[in-house]
Specification:
By secondary structure, the protein is an alpha/beta fold. Helices cover 41% and strands 12% of the residues.
Length: 289
């Protein structure tokens, strides 16, 4: 399906012809398609607002979704959207020029949320939480104005893992970014089609395609973040045991409520002898069957 590089969307023009890039591209497309199908994201004839920050992840998302649509595997309309939040030194012409060149339907929106964040956040604190909320609110508004049924984000497998451990270490709960959810107002889906894709693959892909990457730390508020600390922990685990990230991610898709401690998810009080049969797996982990 993906071997003929002469028959591709313009976002893939100039793609490397190496076997390693073809393998990378196929893997990302396959994993994205799997997530879209597994989590029921497709509503035939729907319109998606694809959020583009200018980072490696959102470029990968944009390219792969257009590839799937180009191949007839994604029967939805795609509208790329960049929200310029007024960050200092943001290169405002980069994305409009890129999207025009690639023939991608898009909307560029300017909202100076940066000034709001600067005014509201105490000195020495990071801007990310408030900045994210303001960005999400504007994206929801734009999606409604454009007749979109879903806001599509570029979070990948590693983002999901990092969020899980941030909630575990700092939030006291088992939760992460779901691949599909409904917003609080109940009128829009939020999709993360790259949920199965590794960050390393996004980086390799975007660099190989020479997409004009815009750094995510223009506001200077990235140092010392809890997410960076969690990322370092995961990097060390991966270094010591290659493949560890994928094993941990697989665990998020293989949850057994009866083997956790939340009585809202499993009726421990109502559990009776003779109704369940256990077998031991590992050393001391009971498995229901």
């Amino acid at each position: 399906m993906l071997d003929d590089l002469d028959d591709i969307h313009p976002l893939f023009h100039g793609a490397p012809s190496s076997a390693s890039f073809k393998k990378l591209r196929k893997r990302i497309v396959r994993q994205t398609r799997e997530a879209i199908e597994q989590y029921g994201m497709i509503e035939r004839g729907a319109r998606w607002l694809v959020c583009l920050s200018g980072g490696k992840d959102s470029y990968t998302l944009l390219a792969v979704l257009h590839e799937l649509k180009w191949r007839g595997l994604l029967p939805v309309d795609l509208l790329a959207c960049n929200l310029d939040q007024g960050q200092p030194n943001f290169p405002a012409t980069v994305l409009p020029e890129f999207l025009e060149k690639m023939g991608v339907e898009h909307r560029i929106e300017y909202q100076d949320t940066y000034s709001v964040v600067k005014d509201k956040v105490p000195a020495g604190r990071t801007y990310c939480a408030l900045c994210s909320r303001l960005r999400r609110g504007n994206l929801y508004r734009i999606a409604r104005e454009e007749g979109c049924s879903a806001v599509v984000l570029g979070h990948h497998r590693d983002d999901i893992l990092e969020t899980f451990f941030m909630n575990l270490f700092h939030g006291g709960r088992l939760a992460t970014m779901p691949p599909k959810l409904v917003n609080e107002e109940g009128d829009l889906f939020v999709y993360r089609p790259l949920a199965h894709v590794a960050e390393e693959d996004c980086e390799k892909f975007a660099k190989s395609m020479n997409y004009p990457i815009i750094p995510c730390d223009l506001c200077g508020s990235q140092d010392g973040l809890q997410r960076q600390q969690v990322k370092q922990i995961l990097d060390q685990w991966e270094k010591n045991s290659p493949g560890r990230r994928q094993v941990m991610f697989r665990a998020l898709t293989n949850i057994r409520p009866s083997h956790m401690l939340d009585p809202k998810l499993f009726d421990f009080a109502g559990l009776m002898r003779g109704t369940e049969q256990f077998e031991e797996i590992g050393n001391d982990i009971p498995k229901l069957r």
